[in-house]
Amino acid sequence: MAGRRVLQLGAAAVCLATSACVQQPATEQGRGAKDLYDLFTVIAAVIFVIVAGLIGFSILRFRKKRGDETLPEQFHTNTKLEILWFAIPQLIVIGLFVGSVMVLNDTDRVRDETDVTVNVTSFQWGWRFSYEGTTVTIESLPDSQAEIFVPVGETVAFNLESEDVIHSFYVPKFFVKRDVVPGRTNRLEVVIEEPGTYTGRCAEFCGLLHDRMDFKVTALEPAAFDEWLASND
């Protein structure tokens, strides 16, 4: 009975931990980051259940009963067991490290050629979006938040610069973000997989109107995007 309760509590803990991973990313790079996040969460939940289960089992199974003066069998060393509980954590850490490096390399990858490049300049408190190779420039201000357009299924590069303080370019559905630092150009490349409109914002406190630095990114089919870009150039 006690063992069944421990298992039920463990299963509930796993469900609760994994239920946090519900948001689906809209980008190819974000999907890799989410898969890695989910893997970390599941492994952490499994380890928690095992450790908590063993502790609970030990408390229930070996608790001292009234009038029982018999001590459990004692042992001070078990070489095989010690090697096992050293090797398993090491393998888990190495595996997660390798997976993290692979996802990070994909997220930070800079291609020689991209389909669309948008130069983004942040300032207190807004954004300026300029499409490279065109005359199209869109400015987003606290009282006039802008909407920019990008194509679906193509590589879109954002070159990020700041005119004043540190900002952060963040579109939650992209699942990745980049700090925007004065005197430095950071770059974010994404491939958006689904058409739709996604809210973006500054994720670094940058002053009085920080909370009003929102903008929208609308992903269109390539033909529709080309038409929009041509009509605004």
What does this entry look like structurally?
- It contains 4 helices and 10 strands, in the order H-H-H-E-E-E-E-E-E-E-E-E-E-H.
- By secondary structure, it is α+β, with helices and mostly antiparallel strands.
- The radius of gyration is 26 Å and the shape is elongated.
- It starts with a helix and ends with a helix.
Name a few traits of the molecule.
alpha+beta, five-stranded mixed β-sheet, elongated, 233 residues, single chain
Write the layout of secondary structure elements.
Elements: H1 2-18, H2 28-61, H3 79-107, E1 116-123, E2 126-131, E3 137-140, E4 147-151, E5 155-162, E6 167-170, E7 177-180, E8 186-191, E9 196-202, E10 215-220, H4 222-232
Parallel strand pairs: 1-5, 4-10
Antiparallel strand pairs: 1-2, 2-3, 5-8, 6-7, 6-9, 9-10
In the sheet with the most strands, the strands line up as: 3-2-1-5-8
Give the rounded overall mean pLDDT.
85
For the termini, the CA-CA separation is 72 Å
Count of extended strands: 10
Largest sheet: 5 strands, mixed
Task: Note the total helix count.
Answer: 4
- Which structural class matches the secondary elements? alpha+beta
Portion in strands: 15-25%
Could you list the spans in which at least 5 consecutive residues all have pLDDT below 50?
Answer: none
Shape: elongated
